[in-house]
Amino acid sequence: MRYAYYTLAFLVVLLVSVMGFRGMPATRPPIELFPDMDHQAKYKPQAESKFFADGRADRPIPAGTVPFGRSADQADPAFLKADDVHYAGKNADGSFLRGFPPDLTVNEAFLRRGQGRFEIYCAPCHGKLGDGQGITKSYGMVATPTYHDDRLRTMPEGEIFNTITNGKNTMFPYADKLSPDDRWAVVAYVRALQRSHHGTLDDVPPDQRGGLK
Amino acid sequence: MSKIFPKSANALPLQILIFLGVLGGVAAAGITYYATPAYLRVGYQPVQPVPFEHSLHAGQLGIDCRYCHASVEKSATSSVPAAQTCMNCHSAIKIQSPLLEIVRESYRTGDPVPWVKIHANPDYVYFNHSVHVNRGVSCVECHGKVNEMTVVRQDKPHSMSWCLDCHRNPAERIRDPKDVFNLDSPTLAVQGRLEDAKKFIHDWKVMPPTSCSGCHR
Predict the structure, then answer these.
(1) Taking CB atoms and an 8 Å limit, are A46 and B80 in contact across chains?
(2) Which class would CATH give A105-196?
(3) What's the pTM value of the predicted model, to 2 decimals?
(4) Does the distance separating the beta carbons of B47 and A27 come in below 8 Å?
(5) At what angle do helices A157-166 and A180-196 cross, to 10 degrees?
(6) How many whole angstroms separate alpha carbon B116 and alpha carbon B47?
(7) Which tens digits make up the pLDDT trace of A8-38?
């Protein structure tokens, strides 16, 4: 009987030495013990397809079509993007809009939204202060302009919107990451940053001036 | 009548029963330890086509998760970025690197980079990223400290019981909404603000389903 326990102990040691412990790194795909319905005949986002020639389950948008929206009954509010002021930042005569589209309300929540988006998508290059000193600069990103010179301070809001949407020079378009409304929010925050760098003592409420001179 | 069995054999049936009990216990322990996702999945660290370092980009450079995984706040899927996202910087930085040739090729042709999926839910699980990150559940709760991983590995088992641990007691895992994408931030409970977490759960109507149809359809 003793030998049965010895054998069992040996088998346990053998098993542990072969199988190792939980959490050990492994490059091989995990074993699926009961793969019953783990892999169904359906596509998930960004999945591979053996049916389509390009191997992609996500289909590119066919030429000459626009996405209607997420529901078949109701169009996305941005459907057709026909409003050039809102979706291109341009006036009817093709010039860039000054100010913001009339259907947007610029308030604190809008600026906070812009700040949040700016710090995710813009700050890596433009810097959190908009001075062009983002983290990428120390890794070899070519000159990123500061927002605080006269050229960019006097640039129409619509042109900044257009730059975010379509990119400019070495900057790539960010339309895939920022919705049109978010782009306007970022424009508003860029304006706030510019304003902050050209503040004077008169901008500070008298009771908060403290030791400021 | 000769004796076929020695006298010591009288104890044998009981000894065999005890041994079978021990054997069953060892087998159950082995299956529990080895045949669950905590062993089978955790640690999965495939070799990716491009040796992208999260520890450099998300850790050292401090780039927000959402810079690349842009859809995570508004979609069920946290998207893997297109090559254009990489090229935002890599059209100017390390433009000669042979390691990035696959990315440049992908950008030129539009064919995706063949990244290897690590966190794969079974097809009968309907997980939604946006509802989690918009309700104070940080990336780190399910993906571990990706900002410290040179090569990404699966850090949590993603088994159903593991999901339910949190669904049954979300207050312990909730973060301040502004800390959700800061993987080094402590949970509210760790900060000693469990009451705030409970208030958040009440005010924001965080009601994680524990019924089957919450996640399975």
Answers:
(1) yes
(2) mainly alpha
(3) 0.89
(4) yes
(5) 130
(6) 8
(7) 999 999 999 999 999 899 999 999 988 889 9
